[in-house]
Amino acid sequence: MKKKFLLLALPLFISCMSTNTRSEGEKAWSQKMVESHGLGDFYCNRHYQAELGKTGWDYVSGLVANAVLKAWVMYPEKTEYYDAVKAFADNSTSEDGSMIFSLKGENALRPSNIDDLPAGRIYFELYKEEMKKGNTKDAERYKTASTIIRNKLKYDHSRIAEGLPGAGGFFHKAVYPNQMWLDGLYMGSTIYAEWQHAFGEPDTKDFTESWDDIATQFKTIHHYTYNEEKQLNYHAWSATPTDSNSFWANQNEPFLGCSKEFWGRGMGWYFAALADVLEYMPENHTEYDAVSTIFNQVAAGLKHRQDPASGVWYQLLQHDANTTADGKGDTTGNETYNIGTAPNYLEASCSSIFTYAYLKGIRLGLLDKTTYLPVAEKAYQGLLKTFIREQEGKTDIIQICASAGLGPARNPSRTGTINYYLCGDDVTIVENEGKAIGTFIMASLEYENHLRNKKD
């Protein structure tokens, strides 16, 4: 039976608090979340998923699958983790790897939709493992599928045209022409980078140009969305701000084309994308330092926005709980949307992914340990205290922004204002949503790895 999809009322305090420590022999927090909600019993954009292996292709289910696979890498005795992810991949991939299917049997890779791509990151670890087992048939299947995704992005995905600012930047989606969103850097550039690392041929023109292309995506969006004074990036930017699909965009300098607010999860995707790409980017590449500098700028800005009491972060990063929607809503055309007075709140998915990116950046030597380890450790304890609830043998995660976006013209309620991010119809507060489950597992694995290294 499907669980009811719970909306959490504000104020967001629940009496059944979780402990932030575990006794010897108790399961790690990553394992608790995998076994409570990673293998099944989670939501993808409000769609209930009973079993990971039977879930359709989607960036949210792909995020959960990738997190579960990372958990298997750290805890290889948990073979059921690997089996569930392999079932998810096989359920969506043709026998020869030439097609990725939706649950309806259609091509799951829609034209110029960057959200359709990142689930393919599971293919790399599956490829390595099946090659070890001598199962070359499935290994080649996964390599073929990952190559199709990479080539679709590199060669077929719509880009901002020459003559416009940001030329060469990937559209977030075809329905958002000439728009780049922070989210898209995680959705596209990470699988592009991992493919280059796994299957690219060094010392070739294609290899160098591909890394140039990846770096261009970060340099472009950072140039247009980074507010140096606030040390934060606006959620999105449009190269054609007068286009009807960009009605949410700033029409004047400074920050022409930028959206209005600094959204937590958008910056989370961006921060994690930087960490994940730098893991694979050759250090001798001419753009490595530029991308590393951006990563450190983002880390510094988010450090200043960490809530000093809880150690986690708010839905809207430049505001605290004293900021509320204005009660008047947003008027677009003849209609008014996003009416309410809900306050800003501490949000689980952005807090989890920030924690992951800090810990990973420290582990890889990309971030200064003395500066950022206290931030990351406080953040991880804050995740457990603020968002994790244990009851009836399950580990739940609460206070999650269900979704958020900007436009297009046919959806005038998605204005990108404070009112929208706090009161929008699609921006509801939920629990056990895959975008927080996956990122919490990833943060936990990094923290557990950190604890292991402290003991050694």
What does this structure look like?
The structure is a single chain. This protein has 456 residues and is mostly helical. 46% of the residues lie in helices and 7% in strands. The protein is built from 13 helices and twelve strands. The strands form six sheets. The chain has a two-stranded antiparallel ribbon. A two-stranded antiparallel ribbon has the order 3-6. A hairpin with a 4-residue loop joins strand 4 and strand 5 (232-233). Helix 1 packs antiparallel against helix 13 (434-455) and helix 2 runs antiparallel to helix 3. It is globular, with a radius of gyration of 21 Å. It starts with 28 loop residues before the first helix and ends with a helix.
Tag the structure with descriptive keywords.
mainly alpha, 456 residues
How many helices? The count is 13
Radius of gyration: 21 Å
Measured by DSSP, the beta-strand proportion falls in 5-15%
Q: Given the helix and strand composition, which structural class is it? A: mainly alpha
The amount of helix comes to 40-55%
Order of helices and strands: HEEHHHHEHHEEEHHEEHHEEEHEH
Q: What is the CA-CA span between the terminal residues?
A: 45 Å
Biggest sheet, spatial arrangement of strands: 1-2
Shape: globular
Count of extended strands:
12
Unreliable stretches: 1-21
Major sheet characteristics: 2 strands, antiparallel
Mean pLDDT: 94
